[in-house]
Amino acid sequence: SVAILLYLTRKFKTPDHWYPSDLQKRARVDEYLSWHHTNIRTKSSEVFVSKFMLPVLVGQPLPPKKLEGVVEELNAVLKQFEEQFLQNKPFIAGSEVSLADLMALVELMQPVGAGHNLFEEKPKLAEWRSRVEAAVGPKLFEEAHQTILKAKYM
User: What's the number of domains the chain is made of?
Assistant: First the structure.
């Protein structure tokens, strides 16, 4: 999906903030995109699978201790995300939303869809989410996440 997004930014000459031409900002986006797959993506998916998919498939919830371990791993990655990538900036690459923010938020909405609101006790993360949502527009944000957010009601 990262390769496809990068291709689309080049083919359709999207606004610069999505994949900045400024080399330092672009390096920041690239750094996040490289880190993303084995951290945010992996740990968010594990929570989604543990809280939603496995209970649906086996007909019973994951043992609480096991689920707690999966959530702790996600929380460790979220802390790292806040400290290394968000720092004190509005977005990952600085003052404007980028592909890095979209990739991160899409993955973080998976646990939310499974009923695990990871933004609830993390104000810095919640504020960032609000900024990303505002940057893409609430209607598009809702449309992009409507299916995953219905998962917890299945």
Answer: 1
